[in-house]
Design goal:
Layout: E1 3-6, E2 17-20, E3 31-32, E4 47-53, H1 62-72, E5 73-84, H2 89-98, E6 104-105, E7 108-109, H3 117-125, E8 128-137, H4 149-155, H5 157-160, E9 161-170
Parallel strand pairs: 1-2, 1-4, 2-3, 4-5
Antiparallel strand pairs: 5-9, 6-7, 8-9
Amino acid sequence: MKKLNIGCELDYKEGWVNIDFEKSEITNPDIIVDLNKLPLPFGDNEFDLIQCTEVLEHILYPGSLLKELKRILKTSGDLIVSMPNEMNIYERLKVLFKGYLETFEPEMPHHFHYTGIPQQKELYESLFKIEEIVYKPLEGKKYNLFFPRYYLTNKFPNLFAINMTVGLVKK
């Protein structure tokens, strides 16, 4: 089984092909790749499993990268993706009181894309079939006030989920 780990800086996986945009003090990727310059250096239908978590929001054209991942994923393969939910209640309050998100400071943007759960689902469903969705609730002491935190996260993910991890397969 051939596996690809995209954006491996904080999650280097033994037995996988680990790629990232640069070498760092934290990790040494197997292959350095600029994900904004496609095609990726892999063949069609090459991987059984691809993990691309917390990466798409850093890419100029995430839809183009997803199309490329579809190309290199085997027909029976699985793709695991996640992006932050920038529309949760905490992020909305930061915009209201600060005027901008911390991940998009005027001097140096960290994320290129700010999406909520509905936009992410629409993007994924345009190219893949969704097999599974896992919502991660807001965390920390201040959110313990929301006693039914997991209920609220699953019932209203756009407001209470910090991110959404999705298992995808080719259509």
